[in-house]
Amino acid sequence: SDSFQTLVIAHHQPKPAVYTIEKIMSETTPNPSSTTTTASDVPNTSYGGGTEADVNFSNPQGPPVFRFVMTGGPCGGKTTALARVFSFLRERGFEVITCPEAYTLLVSNGMSAHLFSTPGMDTYIQSAVLDTQMTLEDSVQNVLKARGKPSVILCDRGSMDGTVYMGQEKFAKYLLESRKTDIVQVRDNRYDAIFHLVTAADGALNYYSLDNNAVRTETPEQAIEVDRKTQKAWVGHPHLYVIDNSTDFEGKMSRLVDVICKIVGLPSNLKRRSAKFLLQPSSLPLDPAQIFPPDIDYQLFDVEKVYLQRSPSTSSSSGEDDNGNSSDENYGFVRKRNVIDLKDGTSILGTTFQLTTVTMSGGEMIEQKRIISEREYLTAVMSRDTSRHVIEQRRISFLYKLQSFTIHIYKQPVAHIGVLHAQVEAKESSGEQDVELPPFLKVERQLLNSEQDESMYGAYSISRIDK
Length: 467
Hints:
About 30% of the residues lie in helices and about 25% in strands. The chain has 14 helices and 14 strands. It has helices at about 1-10, 20-25, 50-55, 80-90, 100-105, 120-145, 165, 170-180, 185-190, 220-235, 250-265, 375-380, 450-455, 460, and strands at about 65-70, 95-100, 150-155, 195, 240-245, 275-280, 300-305, 330-340, 350-360, 365-370, 390-400, 405-410, 420-425, 445. The chain is globular and about 65 Å long.
């Protein structure tokens, strides 16, 4: 029943810390003139005026609606993954709807390959695919928002997949001229996470097959090429997860489900998603073009992280919250992320905003994130924790050997500290993490999950003014 499903979610999700910004946000309404489109923004469409669905739809603080993209190379397990994740989340009380792959939907209804024989058709076809994709996603978002329950949209590919065939420069020009928007909005602001399932042709060749997809025609070599281009298309999204073939297929699916559990707040067997390494201060990649090999694509970002005031309920005299956790372990912050033009290293191509709450539950750190609008970000900054510095960093995101890395280089309140973050999974037996470090970076040592390393190199500790 619905009541039972709601109880399942409430049991598994930790009680969130309360921050002053949450009260402020609940008293404000989205700015209709804002140019920022986020995964949580829905067109203001009301059909009944006073029904339960109308109330749910217009509630800015309603249950979360996550939007995930399942993408990858040919025969990567995407179809199975969609079915597996759909059932897994439904059984745990989430409303789940899958958005079908737009290109396959159009091809299966008559948009055949011979249409490409007319010069210039690639732009028109990709425009049709993007229109179909985004309309489907936004319509499903409306339905789930009105439903008023924790929900997940599973997108069979997303807005950036078309750049594999169109090229990012041409795609960016098309977005600007035809839609008056940019890649930052349709990539970073539109989806909560991207899951790239590596083609079986790369690491599991014996399982690569063309039999289960009538549209698929690629040889293993072509499949690997398409896979690499698809990975490149999503580099720069803040939550890009590459799920490779380092285990058997069941292990691949389990790793995917574990990462999703972490994001939506369900219990997970994944002990940690990030390994951190201290870079040598004398060789920080301040100019990546001088250090990165030409075959490594990367994205530059300038990040501003602002920690928020605690409300009295999370700053009690006992030093503990209602869950018995140290109140200093529960905190929240907002982040502004400027995408930097690689051509000059300074011009801003676009901006995204995010709210994160961090809660300790049973000795495990739970991060809950959601994309917010610029107005919400500016409102939050008004309630910043004045006992902490604003953290400023230059970040560099890239892929290497099917691993997702981000370099954090501190600019304020400290400088000359660089930390390499690797998105990896811990081994079930030992909890250790396998990371193949990029040889073009000079790593001093791996950072430990210890009070000493956190005090010296963790952003939360560095932000303290009395430190």
